[in-house]
Amino acid sequence: MEYSIQELSRLSGVTTRTLRWYDQIGLLKPSRVAESGYRYYGGAEVDRLQNILYYRALGVELARIKECLDDPSFDRLAALRTHLTALEAERERLEKLIRSVKDTIGAEERNEIMSDEQKFEAFKKRAVAHNEEAYGAEIRAEYGDQEVDEANAAVMNLTREQYQEWTNLGREIQKRLEAAVQGGLSPEGEAGKEITGLHRRWLTITGNRYDPVRHRGIAELYVMDERFVAYYDKRLSGCARFLRDAVAHWAS
Questions:
Q1: DSSP assignment of 93-144, as one string?
Q2: pLDDT in the model for residue 137
């Protein structure tokens, strides 16, 4: 059976933008390209995409996935068994996180008295849980498990003052993005420079070392993944792209 890129996108849940990116980097080439330029995928490509998604779910970087799948000795069955073991371990980790969040919700629903410190810890747990649920697979695929786990740990280690600044920065960035897009400003102008500085502070408030290359890479994800686009463009279209373009110009 053969699938167009739109059909494969619906089947797999992977956006057509991402499928085109996979083609560009040689990770998933279509079985053929029609004279019209449309991409078509066969059974072998569907299996390869399934392998890619398994590896992504485990936080393997795209370059490493390509290296594994292109290896002539690649054993799909052995890889699936390894995936299963790792996914079961991830399920156990998530179940612990879910229990923690449920305990916090239960305490609030029962109107149990929680100390300010307990409430603060609950806020941080929710932030980490939400980010993992919404964006974890993509970020882990791009940057690896270790870096994401360290970032989550950094959030959990934030002081109350740092956490408040972190959340306030997020709101301020969104507010300035919407004002810049609404005003038709250029990402290469002063507004773009200031937003890039705020975003840099937002990324490094947890103590992460600043890396402009990584900064630009993260900003690129904001326009590649439709969920990031939906987040930044929730009230005004163009905010995600403005942020990406501003960071691409000013990050240094």
A1: HHHHHHHHHHHHHHHHHTT----HHHHHHHHHHHHHHHHHHHHHHHHHHHH-
A2: 65
